[in-house]
Write a structure and sequence with these properties.
Blueprint lengths: L11 E6 L2 E6 L5 E3 L10 E6 L4 E9 L4 E6 L9 E6 H4 L1 E6 L2 E5 L11 E19 L3 H10 L5 E2 L5 E2 L11 E17 L7 E10 L4 H4 L4 E6 L11 E10 L2 H8 L14 H24 L12 H6 L17 H14 L28 H7 L34 E10 L2 H4 L4 H7 L5 E6 L4 E6 L2 H11 E3 L9 H4 L17 H4 L2 E3 L3 E2 L12 E2 L1 E7 L34 H13 L23 H20 L1
Pfam families: NCBP3
InterPro entries: NCBP3 (IPR019416), Nucleotide-bd_a/b_plait_sf (IPR012677)
GO molecular function: mRNA binding; RNA 7-methylguanosine cap binding
């Protein structure tokens, strides 16, 4: 990884902007900032400085996540620095902080790695002078007051004790002390126009005192990349068109009446996400009104995105090529045929493979029902309304009379996702995200949503890439199932000894497809060994294929699981020392010891248990007769 010192501000120049000195990075100057562990002097440039109490910074950036901008009173990091991190926590949140004061806002996916996005940040420093009356207790005055209070005090007729009234100058003295405070506001947003599409506001108070007065106002701006905490390989970010200037009065007036809007992401979002966002904004308004009513601090409600999307909603650093075209369209197919005839190229490209063999063997379609009794309880089948071949009684399903059912949005297909399920539990437990991304690499996957030990979702940048991957990597399962399925009869019962197998499920009608080749682990790590293979079922994902919250417990691994050896389809069952010893004992009992003389001298040995000497003699005579017949002919 390059060091932080490779940050170079070579294209910084000074110009006059509204009678104030400002720093500008020109269009041809692009900064490449590598991931960093902490702020340093290299992240700030002395020319990017404006001595003003109202600062506006505009810039464009390309980043996968964790684009950090900081305002500091000096050309380096300070304790009171204001920092905004766009696309924090894997491009899932945006964070504003100053010291311990931190605000996390819901807008996600505000960073784009493949296109330039415009951002703006504004910092307004409002100085407030307050007078505070502090009582200075003088011990000498208190002692003098106690000494003068003697028995000369008298009581009136009613027996009420009256004390002498002290003079004003004898009371403890008071002094008026002025204290400087700062009511600062930090705004961030997306777009070319500052003050528009604001996504976050941080209101903060700084108490001036010894040390703080020397550091104010904030003059310098710095850029950084805080992506080192990412599980994937940290990717550098690029910045251009940086413009730092003092804020105009019109913009300051607009910012005073501004409220943060939850602009979810740069690109357009789907209807489901918009509905979730509206519900989240409503919850925020209720929480804010409740806090104002009871005088409590406002606490932001939890994020509206499901946990399974929060966990892996990030871009793939090695995203493949995506066409953005519907290759199943007849017009596109005609263009492909014409191009193939013109240039003489094959229709399908050879898929990248980690296998040593030149061509892969297609998995027999009967293996889709292998281990069916176990897979049926673990597999997440689509709802009947989304089956490829709908059931006849699907339309006849109605709620029972006399019951009021809650209005639930019907499930729908998610064409950008592919849902995969592994038939082989032990082998798939060694598989990780990098293995799945490599399996779909030439189709441009974006990220993987893990739903459990046996299933996950793979999201692509468009529905056409997902359709290409589904069509080229899998084969259609016949519906109804074949009459004879040896794979379903080979199921080994690990839970019970009952020799019962349910009829095979109509996987083809549900929309399931069987992968043509096995998923292969590409590298050895602490989770498993390189070369482990697992068979997959895949289908288009639905809106029900999500996890709403993080699981609190995980199932125990299968009996045959081990991260220290290569696993495959037959590794779900244990290979214990007791079974090995039993097989060795059976093999020893099935053969005569070397010292034992043969039952038939010069002839067959009784090497097979269960055969008598007479049977062996008959077999020997039959062989002799066959040999003589062949000799005569």
């Amino acid at each position: 990884m390059p060091s932080d010192k490779e940050i170079v501000y070579s294209s910084v120049s000074k110009c006059r902007v509204e009678a104030d000195t400002a720093g500008v990075i020109q269009t041809q100057g692009i900064l490449r900032i590598v991931p960093q562990t902490r702020w340093s002097t290299e992240h700030f440039h002395p020319d990017l400085c404006v001595a003003s109490n109202a600062i506006c910074c505009q810039f464009q950036a390309r980043a996968r996540e964790s684009l950090a901008v900081a305002f500091s009173p000096r050309a380096g990091y300070a304790k009171i620095v204001y920092e905004a991190c766009f696309g924090d926590e894997g491009n899932m949140r945006t964070t504003l902080r100053r010291g311990r004061n931190m605000v996390k806002i819901a807008p996600s996916r505000v960073c784009e790695e493949n296109s330039w996005v415009s951002y703006w940040t504004c910092l307004v420093i409002e100085e407030v002078i307050e007078e505070e009356n502090e009582e200075i207790h003088n011990k000498e005055a208190e002692n003098r007051e106690a000494a003068e209070t003697t028995n000369e005090d008298f009581a009136d007729k009613d027996g009420i004790e009256i004390t002498k009234v002290k003079e004003q100058e004898d009371t403890p003295g008071t002094t008026n002390k002025t204290r400087k405070k700062y009511n600062n506001r930090f705004y961030i947003g997306i777009g070319d126009v500052p003050g528009k599409d604001c996504i976050g506001i941080l209101q903060d108070k700084l108490h001036g005192g010894r040390g703080d007065d020397d550091e104010l106002p904030f003059r310098y701006v710095g850029f950084s990349n805080r992506a080192v905490r990412d599980r994937q390989a940290p990717a550098p970010l690029q910045i251009r068109n940086v413009r730092l200037s003092s804020m105009a009065e019109e913009l300051a007036t607009v910012l005073e009446s501004l409220s943060a809007t939850n602009k979810l992401c740069v690109n357009d979002v789907d209807e489901e996400t918009k509905a979730l966002l509206e519900e989240y904004e409503e919850q925020c308004q209720k929480a804010r009104a409740r806090a104002e009513k009871f005088g409590l601090p406002y606490k932001e409600p939890p994020s509206f995105l499901p946990w399974s999307q929060q966990r892996r909603l990030r871009a793939n650093p090695k995203a493949g090529f995506h066409t953005g075209l519907d290759l199943s369209n007849p017009d596109e197919k005609a263009k492909q045929d014409a191009r193939r005839k013109r240039f003489g190229t094959a229709l399908d490209e050879m898929e990248k493979s980690d296998d040593v063999t030149l061509e892969k063997k297609t998995i027999p379609i009967e293996q889709a029902w292998d281990k069916e009794n176990f897979a049926r309880g673990q597999r997440l089948d689509p709802p009947p309304t989304l089956w490829k071949v709908p059931r006849p009684d699907t339309s006849a399903i109605h709620p029972s009379e006399g019951f009021i059912r809650e209005k639930v949005e019907p499930p729908r297909l998610t064409p950008e996702k592919i849902h995969i399920f592994s038939i082989d539990w032990a082998a798939f437990k060694q598989i990780r995200t990098d293995d799945i991304m490599a399996f779909f690499s030439i189709y441009g996957p974006s990220y993987v949503e893990w739903l459990g030990d046996l299933s996950c979702n793979v999201l692509f940048q468009d529905r056409f890439s997902a359709a290409r991957a589904l069509e080229n990597l899998s084969q259609e399962i016949p519906s109804p199932p074949p009459d004879t399925l040896e794979a379903s009869r080979r199921y080994v019962h690990t839970m019970s000894d009952e020799d019962m197998v349910d009829p095979p499920t109509d996987l083809g009608a549900m929309g399931w497809r069987l992968c043509k080749s096995m998923l292969r682990k590409i590298s050895t790590d602490r989770h498993g060994q390189r070369g482990t293979t697992a068979r997959l079922l895949m289908r288009p994902a639905t809106s029900l294929d999500i996890l709403l919250e993080r699981p609190k417990s995980w199932p125990k691994p299968p009996p045959g699981f081990s991260p220290k050896r290569v696993l495959g389809p037959s590794s779900d069952f244990p290979r214990t020392s007791n079974h090995r010893r039993k097989r060795e004992n059976e093999k020893a009992r099935s053969a005569n010891p070397p010292s034992t003389e043969s039952l038939l001298s010069g002839s067959l040995s009784a090497t097979r248990p269960g055969f008598s000497v007479e049977e062996l003699e008959l077999e020997r005579a039959a062989k002799r007769q066959k040999a003589s017949t062949e000799a005569e002919s």
